[in-house]
Design goal:
Protein name: Ppx/GppA phosphatase
Radius of gyration: 19 Å
GO molecular function, one term: pyrophosphatase activity
Oligomer: single chain
Order of helices and strands: EEEHHEHHEHEEEHHEHEHHHHEH
CATH class of the largest domain: Alpha Beta
Number of helices: 13
Pfam families: Ppx-GppA (PF02541)
Distance between the termini: 14 Å
Strand content: 15-25%
Organism: Fibrisoma limi BUZ 3
Number of strands: 11
Amino acid sequence: MKLAAIDIGSNAARLQISTVLHVDDITSFKRVEYVRFPLRLGHDVFTFGELTPESEARTTKLMQVYKLLMELHEVEGYMACATSAMRESKNGPEVVHRIEAATGIKIHIIDGQKEAELINNVVVQALDDRQYLHIDVGGGSTELNVYLNRQKTASRSFKIGSVRLLEGKETKGAWHKIEDWVEEHVDASRELIAVGTGGNISKLFNLAAKTSELSTSLAEIERIRNYIAGFNLDDRINKLRLNADRADVIVPAADIYISVMKWAGASEITVPDVGLKDGIIQLVYSQLAKKKRLPL
């Protein structure tokens, strides 16, 4: 069985197709296809308040491509979710309605709480009983979640993200709100480990020296951030070989991860290779499993 997830963010839209595996009553998912395309919807929404006809046309074409890929893979179930840019766009509901009419792809505009929940469902599997602060930085929003004994104790979505910072459109007082929230909900008397998800922290982690297979230090993230910031945009693309849509947002994204870690007193960050798309696939499977009485 193959399942698919479409994640339409403020910077890029992703399609992931995974095969469902069953071994000794344990269900897991193996990625067989992954496509990422830089729609950059956040540029429109954070600047004009709505999606332009050009962005709608490009999104429609991309959904047609994703639909064909799902058909070729004979996907049995899928879900498409749109996050910060689409939910803040004044014409977002109209756009997703027209896209569904043109492509048959139904897009769910999810709020920050649902977005965090879907990501948390896969992140929590990598945690132990220590205190963790999960930081997920997207193009338009940042989700923070505190865990203790693998139980979520606090959660909040903030209107600050890599594209929003790049455009200078972060909401007033957003940095102070995050700092105050972290101070209120993190137990300073306990050890804290940060958990980072999102495309930018994954790229930073790939470039950093590791303290373990899935971890690196705050100091190393700062070093990589400053190294990249020392190059202009063209050199980031040509010399560092960063994708164009990653090269301009990776430093603003790094600033969010670094600031939150400092406020929380976290000297180490774990970067599991999971994200919203994995949470969506897990949700699609759980819904199908109930209908078909499959193992959970």
